[in-house]
Amino acid sequence: MIDEKNLKIMEGIAKGLSLEEIAEYAGVSKKTAYNRIKMLEDMGIVKKVKKTWEIDYKKAECDTIGILLLGVHNDYEGLKKITERLARFDFVEKIYKLVGSNYNLLVVVRYKNLKELVSEGEKFLEWLQKSGIKIDSMAQFVGETVKDSRRTILS
Fold first, then answer.
1. 108 in Cβ contact with 66 (< 8 Å)
2. Domains, the chain
C-alpha cells in the first residue's frame, strides 16, 4: 500500500537522501523508514542499486540533445522494427510510444556534437530506406541540455 509516508519515503529516495535523511524527511524513525523501504522493494516499486556516479554531460562535451518524432501508421511490424533498431544505439536514451497525434514514437538522443548527429541520422535514414518502412511524418529538434534530472516530488 502506498500511503503518504511511503510517498515521502519514495521522494527521499528520488532526491538521493541517506536513510537517516529519508526518515527525517518522511517524519518516521530510521527503523520504520528501513522497513517501509524493504516493503517497497518487495513490492517491486523501488530497487536497491549500488552507489554510483553521475556524468555532467556538459563538462563531458556530450550535451547535444535531440528529440525525434516519428509517425509510422498502419504498419505495426515497421514500428516494431524501428523501435528494436533504435533501442540498440548507445546514443538513444529513451523511446516513448505516443497516442493522440500524427507521431506515435518519440525518441530522445544524446550526441557528442552536431557532426555525430548528422552522421548517425544519415545512417538511420539509409537503414529506413533499405528496410522499406514508410514513415508518414517525422520531425527532429536539436538543442543543448539546460536541465537534466528526474522528478523527485511524488505526492
1. yes
2. 4-42 (no CATH), 64-144 (3.30.70.920)
